[in-house]
Design brief:
This protein is α+β, with helices and mostly antiparallel strands. The protein has three helices and eight strands. It has helices at 2-10, 99-119, 122-146, and strands at residues 12-18, 21-29, 31-36, 39-43, 50-63, 66-80, 83-87, 91-93. Strands 1, 2, 3, 4, 5, 6, 7 and 8 form an eight-stranded mixed sheet that branches. The chain starts with a helix and ends with a helix.
Amino acid sequence: MADETTTATKGITVQIVTPAGEVYNESGIDIAVVNTQGGQVGIMAKHVPILAALTIDELIVKRGDDKESLAVNGGIAEFSNDTLTVVADSAETSDVIDVSRAESAKERAEARLAHAQDDHNDAELRRARIALMRAVNRIHVASLKSGR
């Protein structure tokens, strides 16, 4: 019985990697909340294995009373053996997001979006929408850290 309690309190390990390298690697996480293309999923120790495509959105990790948000720009989440591995195009912890750079990216994406709509350029419209979603996600995650 003591072994089961010890295992249950260990939590899960969350690893986030991008082409640029490892962004996050923490153990003892009580719950991770990911936004998949099928909806939001909370993952705790002993959760059934998952393989899911992620949306451009916030990823939340909680350990005790601590909560951290990360900006994840799509990718794949795989959970098995109490380890959540996220492979994403890009991801940032809230403390490393450059808000002024994200604001500039948002403004550029909005301009691209307007231009693509005027030109009826569907391919550019799609790229501009993705760029806008990424910028807004980064701004949102950074604002959570700063309390705005």
